[in-house]
Amino acid sequence: MSKAARLRALLERKETARIVGSRDALTALLVEEAGFDGLWASSFEISASRALPDLGLLTMAELLEASSHVNEATSLPLLADCDTGFGGRINVVRTVQQFEAAGVAGVCFEDKVFPKRNSFLLGGQNLEEAEEFAGRIEAGARARRSSDFTLVARTEALIAGRGLDEALRRAHLYADAGADAILIHSKKRTPVEVLEFLQAWQARTPVVIVPTTYPHWDLADAQAAGVSMVIYANHALRASVSAMRDVLTEIRVRGGTGAIEDRVAPMKELFGLTDVSKWEEWSA
Ligand code: SPV
Ligand code: MG
């Protein structure tokens, strides 16, 4: 089964799938090792790992390169975060062509105006006109070579404070245009507005969520409510930042690495993760 077919099967199965934000190949390996179903090439994480804010600064080629590294590291399917699609319809078409050719399983586009701002930043959000965005989805759907390649349309209507009716209107337009799944994003501290959306949506397509601000919503409850896929979008990066800060402070304060030696992964573990013995067989 191709990675694209596997992503599609994850979205269509009964059990809620869980995918994890991965900014690089090593993160992807750890996500696979931990037993998750797939990967999310997060524009927030990839930007942050280059010390850049998530403001649509990275080009399509930069996100494609980072996504390819993530994709090649494991056999898990990758859903790539392609922000607003880097322009108009023709840019979405080329994005679909390039990501599909790279073996990525699917792409996600969001209905904000370029350059987008991360959904959790304070301040307003500019939504793209719904019909214009639907046109991009329609063009992207036509541009793919394999019908298994997944197109996720993400509406930011709730993030922009435009309410449930507007979120539903947009989601229906995007599904009419050929989106395979809808990502409904919310920045509320509870899943209340996502639940309202799910109830009204009636499973017209699979629904994807990013529960960053409502982390206590039980997976079983999300599944019962009809969520097809959960994205843990940024936790591996945030865990790394916390761990690196702690260790670096301690090394500086203590004047050496002795005290933290048993808190960092042994070199042997990295040799294993990077498959050094397999590579050395080539030179033997
Ligand atoms: C990302 O991880 O880049 C996302 C999710 O798009 S969010 O940060 O919630 O916008
Ligand atoms: Mg993003």
TrEMBL record:
Entries under Pfam families matching the protein: PEP_mutase (PF13714)
InterPro entries registered for this protein in UniProt: ICL/PEPM (IPR039556), Pyrv/PenolPyrv_kinase-like_dom (IPR015813), Pyrv_kinase-like_dom_sf (IPR040442)
Superkingdom: Bacteria
Family (UniProt): Belongs to the isocitrate lyase/PEP mutase superfamily. PEP mutase family.
Gene Ontology molecular function terms on file: catalytic activity
The protein's name in its UniProt record: Phosphoenolpyruvate phosphomutase
